[in-house]
Amino acid sequence: MAGNSGLLATVATMANSFRHGLWSTAIFAAVAFAYPAHAQQNQPITILHAAHLLDVQAGALISPGEVLVRGERIAEAGRTVTHPAGATTVDLGQATLMPGLIDAHVHLFLHPGDEDMQTVRESVPERTILAALAAREDLMAGFTAERDMGTEGAGSADTAVRDAINHGLIPGPRLRISGNAISILGGHEDAIHFNPDEHISSNADYANSTDELIATIRRQIKAGADNIKIYETGRDQGGPDGRLHTPFQFTESQLTAAIDEAGRQGIPVAVHATGEPGTLYAAKAGVASIDHAYQISDETMRVMREKKIFAVPTFTVSEYFAAHSSTSAGMEAEQTLITLHNAEFKRQLAAGVPMAVGSDVGPFPHGTQARELELMVQNGMSAADVLRADLLHGARLLNWADSIGQLKPGFYADVIAIDGNPLQDISAVARVRFVMKNGIIYRRP
């Protein structure tokens, strides 16, 4: 116990500070990744100058580029901006200024390794600390906004992470959060790899009827969720025909009831759905996004196009699983899935299905998910369209269309600087040298 005396003293000090209204001071003293010193200073007016600035909508670079930031908002952006007296100027040389990246499918509460076992072995407090560290990694990689698509068994612990970020206690992206995803008994993420007699907890919240689905959504919203995630298909199985067989978990009418209930409180519903008929049920019901979307029918694509429902491909996690499979059979299965998904993605593009960018980061290292944009280009999208999918569509999917995703007056000052021209070389988005979120500089050369 003697080795823990320092930690116990710190905890006691934090508890005492909390009782006296000094919680933020205690946090700053206690965590190793404390908010940057410059984030604690008043930066009322900042001018960012660089060789180039990305106009996302036009798919063009403006040269040179400047952004005038007042407080947490952009005041001006263009080739040149007003230079008020007393403003702080940050000269980023030959870099390209662009909006902070958006990842519409992350798992802050997961890390590389045996996913099933980490959710059993690691306590929720431990996983919450790791999630805070993951949020920092993503921010430093230039991702200033994310949608966390499930804590995988940690319940509403993501509410604490989101709120700590919002209150300036820890660094991280602005977040939309889901708590646990929703599934059925014996469905996706229901500890199906374990001995059922051991009663290992599901990584999702159960809902086995329409009434249970509505009640679960109400509980999750009460606990802080501002996005609902439903597992609509699972468990996937490959067939001898090279196609996926994907049992649905909820009917169209059940999904409609879920969307109506969440929508009553202004909250969108997204689904994990890999194939038919679940993807069609989800599209007809009117979900905000269909994530993974490995194999969808012509009719589903038509509905998604008409209703402007986003597909979120999540290529990177499949690439990572294929490269890190422990068996040759596992690697072969992942490669088969990748080949199928790549071909299906091209069909979806040709059909005009709207795309957003989500990496499924968590099972692979946080802060490396810019790879998703590279893979979308490799699989048939132009770099300009991928950037629009990430920044414009991502902002819309996260319900921040009028606040993030563009360098425009009135938008939040979420700005990054990268080395290179992402319109010519999309891998430039992985070469981040400067990060500002809400007008606060977190990373600089």
UniProtKB/TrEMBL annotation:
<dbReference type="GO" id="GO:0016810">
    <property type="term" value="F:hydrolase activity, acting on carbon-nitrogen (but not peptide) bonds"/>
</dbReference>
<dbReference type="InterPro" id="IPR011059">
    <property type="entry name" value="Metal-dep_hydrolase_composite"/>
</dbReference>
<dbReference type="Pfam" id="PF01979">
    <property type="entry name" value="Amidohydro_1"/>
</dbReference>
<dbReference type="InterPro" id="IPR032466">
    <property type="entry name" value="Metal_Hydrolase"/>
</dbReference>
<keyword id="KW-0378">Hydrolase</keyword>
<dbReference type="InterPro" id="IPR051781">
    <property type="entry name" value="Metallo-dep_Hydrolase"/>
</dbReference>
<dbReference type="InterPro" id="IPR006680">
    <property type="entry name" value="Amidohydro-rel"/>
</dbReference>
<feature type="domain" description="Amidohydrolase-related">
    <location>
        <begin position="96"/>
        <end position="439"/>
    </location>
</feature>
<protein>
    <submittedName>
        <fullName>Amidohydrolase</fullName>
    </submittedName>
</protein>
<dbReference type="InterPro" id="IPR057744">
    <property type="entry name" value="OTAase-like"/>
</dbReference>
